[in-house]
Amino acid sequence: MLRSLLLHALRLCAQTASCLTLFPRFLCTAFMLWLLDFLCIRKHFLGRRRRGRPQPEVELNSDEEEVPPDDPPICVSDDNRLCTMASLKAVWHGQKLDLFKQAHEGCPAPNSQVVLPEGFQYQHILDYARGDRPLVLNFGSCT
């Protein structure tokens, strides 16, 4: 009983520490998504105001065909917004996965267990590494 209580308390502390670590990154990302939405909406409404002014001349190429403008037309709706609850949940989940991943650049590779097809025996991946030669894992192909 006491052991399970300590285990739950330890898990709670680990989750709290991870949330405190992730929260500033998450807020920065959420602010950037909101800022991109704001800039797109601002550009859309400023473009509407300019429609009353005379349109610039259409650019023609060498075949006398109209060249499309650099920017595509902007359509602002709730369907194409960046800062939505679903996108914020995906950002939180992605940052949480990034924090808890086992493999990090520049660090030693994780030594996971693999099952051999013959006899269903367990071995570690790094048991197959030989000296300074790189270890290449090929998981097969269906093509």
Outline the biggest β-sheet: 2 strands, antiparallel
Please tally the β strands and state the result: 2
How would you sum up the global shape?
A: flat
Q: In what order do the strands lie side by side in the largest sheet? A: 1-2
Helix content: 40-55%
Terminal residue distance: 53 Å
Strand content: under 5%
Protein name: Iodothyronine deiodinase
InterPro entries: Iodothyronine_deiodinase
Pfam family, one: T4_deiodinase
Keywords: Oxidoreductase, Selenocysteine, Thyroid hormones biosynthesis
Structure description:
This protein is mostly helical and 143 residues long. The protein has a domain of 50 residues. The protein has two helices and two strands. The chain has a two-stranded antiparallel sheet. The chain is flat. It starts with a helix and ends in a 19-residue tail after the last strand. The model has no long low-confidence stretch (mean pLDDT 77). One of its GO terms (molecular function) is thyroxine 5'-deiodinase activity. This is Iodothyronine deiodinase. Responsible for the deiodination of T4 (3,5,3',5'-tetraiodothyronine). Keywords: Oxidoreductase, Selenocysteine, Thyroid hormones biosynthesis.
